[in-house]
Amino acid sequence: MNSERVQDLGEDIVEMLKTIYDPEIPVDIFELGLIYDVFVSENNDVKILMTLTSPNCPVAETLPVEIEEKVRSIDKVKDVEVEITFDPMWTQDMMSEEAKLELGFL
Predict the structure, then answer these.
(1) What is the C-alpha to C-alpha distance for residues 24 and 59, in angstroms, rounded to an integer?
(2) Is the dihedral of CA 88, 94, 95, 101 positive or negative?
(3) Is there a contact between 86 and 36 (Cβ–Cβ < 8 Å)?
(4) What are the DSSP calls for the chain, one per residue?
(5) Per-residue model confidence (pLDDT) at position 1
(6) Which residues, 6+ apart, have CB-to-CB distance to 36 below 8 Å?
(7) Which PANTHER family does this one have (predicted)?
(8) How far apart are CA 7 and CA 99, in angstroms?
(9) Domains of the chain, with CATH numbers?
(10) Among 14, 17, 21, 48, which has the minimal tally of Cβ within 10 Å of its Cβ?
(11) What average pLDDT score do residues 85-102 get?
């Protein structure tokens, strides 16, 4: 049952991430491929591993804070940590088909 509960919470987190948009690109951060992984512990602590479109991204300071606040607002979530990595570097290939279509890459 615990793994089901963790999976449900993971799905809630992904749905929340899909409400957060990159300010320069009209696509949510999940479909853009900026979210590399979402870890949910048995205690409902959440760690999100993500990247930015570039190291000089203008929202490098604010986007992780927005993600942390929105994910923390989910009832079952206890704590949230957002870690930014540039390994691997983000490329347009990481975008979902939906995002590529939205941006005219298909």
Answers:
(1) 9
(2) positive
(3) no
(4) -HHHHHHHHHHHHHHHHTT-B-TTSSSBTTTTT-EEEEEE-TT-EEEEEE--SSTT-TTTTHHHHHHHHHHHTSTT--EEEEEE--SSPP-GGGS-HHHHHHTT--
(5) 44
(6) 49, 50, 51, 85
(7) FE-S PROTEIN MATURATION AUXILIARY FACTOR YITW
(8) 24
(9) 2-94 (3.30.300.130)
(10) 14
(11) 94
Quote the pLDDT of residue 106. 80
Q: At what angle do helices 62-72 and 2-17 cross, to 10 degrees?
A: 140
Amino acid identity, residue 89? M
pLDDT digits (tens, 9 = 90+) for 4-62: 777 889 999 999 999 999 888 889 999 999 999 999 999 999 999 999 988 888 888 89
Task: Tokens 């347009």: give the residue.
Answer: 92
Rounded distance between C-alpha atoms, residue 15 and residue 18, angstroms: 5
